[in-house]
Structure formats: structure tokens, C-alpha cells
Amino acid sequence: MKKFIYFLDIWITEKDYDFFLDKIKLISNDISVKDIINTYYYKLGEDNTWRINKSFFLEAMTFIDYLNSELEIELKDIQWVYKENFLLLNKDFYVFNEKFFQKIDIKNTYFVNIRYPWFSHIFRIFNQLWWNTLWINHRWDWNYNDKIFCISKLYKWNLKEYVWDIIIPFINTFSKENINILYNFIYDNFWTKKIVLKKSFWEMWNWVKAIDLNITNNEKFYDALKNKYCNIYNQLDAFYIVPFYEIITENRIYYLYNKETDILEIHSVKQKNTNFEWVFELDSFELYKWIEVYWSYINKNEIISNKILLNYIKKIVKLIWYETGVLELWILSKKDFRFFEVNPYWWTLMFKEDQDDMYNFYYNMYKNKFLNY
Prior knowledge:
Blueprint: E1 3-7, H1 14-28, H2 33-40, H3 55-71, E2 78-81, E3 86-89, E4 92-97, E5 100-103, E6 109-113, H4 122-126, E7 132-135, H5 147-153, H6 159-162, E8 167-170, H7 176-189, E9 194-199, E10 208-212, H8 218-228, E11 239-243, E12 249-258, E13 263-274, E14 293-298, H9 300-304, H10 307-320, E15 324-331, E16 337-343, H11 355-371
Parallel strand pairs: 1-2, 1-6, 6-7
Antiparallel strand pairs: 3-4, 3-8, 4-5, 9-10, 9-11, 12-13, 12-15, 13-14, 15-16
Helix pairs in contact: 7-8
């Protein structure tokens, strides 16, 4: 049996929501949708006492009639969402249900949105998977391609091979009770108690915090999220949770990928060297304030000659579909790597040794682009 999760407009009031639920009960008592619209929806030039003029009401009522008439879907198969909490654990989708997160059968669930303004990147992931989604008059509140956008491109493939285990919470009502439930879910379902909280955009290192759940209780976890990730709408901002990895090196790879010829060029490689000895005691990963860092030149041939790593890089680049960027990779072992992010060119980090390589990087960037016009 197909189920429908319908996201109501977040801007409606509690009074609007209660009004809507009362009218849903009338449908359960065999009152028709058209009769409800006739009696309870605002009409210009009429007495509108006890009527509502919010668009969400007419949209949702019409949706009920459509499902019943065209698809023979009953009212009980629609779940109305208003400020509920959700999360993703890799490719599994959970909805908050009383005191815990309940896993949803996504193969038989349709997600419907008319005008909901998303403050979470869960919905980027929706469109990368097999889920049934219907976005009408849909808009993103993000007009740039950030870190979750890149990660979402890898969701169709082997997520653990390219990225990591990842939790993306969508907490619509920030409260101690809801954050405690999130804490318990992470503690019970993640394979490690050492985690990293990361915001998806804006000065990333200021919004990255490591937490060891073995020494961090619910109260401290709540405070960390409240201070860093709770927005003005009392929601959790666009952030996600990943394991804390013991990395060997972190490399930044300046690449060009020609979509027409399917050729990948590695032009320069930098290695970031940091000291994470006290990382779980720090407020954030902010470089040069909390984290000491220095950069090393790496001969690009070390990467090019490593066929396993080079093929891994090319797969990521093709999946993300960026023609150029600074690909950041964590090297965990000789055969184990993790995609970290694609970084913009804020600082080229030029060494004397790669001056010519950086020149060629930009020169070929223009060359690739103009040749394809």
C-alpha cells in the first residue's frame, strides 16, 4: 500500500494547523471536500466568519480529493507534516514518532511538497535516490552548490566507498527533548562514538566540532547544537554528522575535467598538516585559532602514478560533474580514501615548486572552456 507524506506550509500558525485537523476529521465523518471548501474557505464579498484564507488549506483539501478520485488512496494513507523531525542515516529515512525515530518504507512512500521552504539538505538527497518525490512550486533556500550538494551526487553509488557514514538531521522544533532523542539515536545507531558535526556552508572550519559521546552527555550535546547550529526559526541549520576518522594525510588536488573528452588532469597537489591531539576539547576546527596548520608541496606525480587513487579521483569528479575545483581527499590507508569536499579557489597556496603548474592549471581551464564553445 502506498503512503503519502505531505509537507504543510511551515509558515502557518498552530491555530491554522488545528483548524485544518478539525476539518480533516469532518472528511472522516463522510463530509465531502467540496462541502468543506464551500463552508470553511474564504470567499471575497461573503461573510467569512469561521473561514480560513490560507492557501495551504485549499491545496491540501484538493490533494485529498485528487488521491481519492484518481488513485483510490484513502485519507488514512496520508501523513500530514507540520514541524515534525526527520533524519537520514546513509540511505535510510526516519521520521520522529513520539519518543523515537521510526524508519520509513521509502519504496512505497511519496513525498509531496507545494510551498514548503526547506531549511535542511535532506531534500537534496531525495532527488538523488529512488524515492518518489513531487515538488510543486518548489524553491531552494540555497542558491549555491555547497558541501551537501556534492555529497548528494554520490548517493546513487556506493556511499561508503566515496564518503562515509552520514547522518543528516532535520529538526524542525529545537528542544531539549528532541535533541535528547537525536543524541540517543546517534549513540545507538552509529558505529563510533567519536563524531564530527559539520555545517554545510559558510566558513566551514568555524562550524565544525568534534564530539566524543563517551564523554559528552545529552546536556553538553544540546548546548553544542544550540550554540552553533540552531537558527532563528528554532530549527537545526543545514548541518550533518560524520564519524571522526584517523587520517594519514589530507590532500587538496587541483584538477580539470573535460566533459567532452572525458580527460582528467591533475595540475597541483597540496598537503594540509594539522595537529588534532586536543580536538575533542576544542570549540571548533577554526584554523590558526584552535587548529595549527601548515602546508606541504606534494609532487603531483605521486598522485598520478597511484592508479588506485587516480581512478578513485576520476570517479568522484565524474559523479560530481564539476569541470574544475580543488578536490579535498582524506587518505586513510594505501587503498582507503574518503571524499571530503570540493573547495573554491580562495587561496591557491602556491609554492615555488608548483608555480608553473598553477599557471598551467588556469591556462588550461580557459582553454578547455573556449574549445568547447
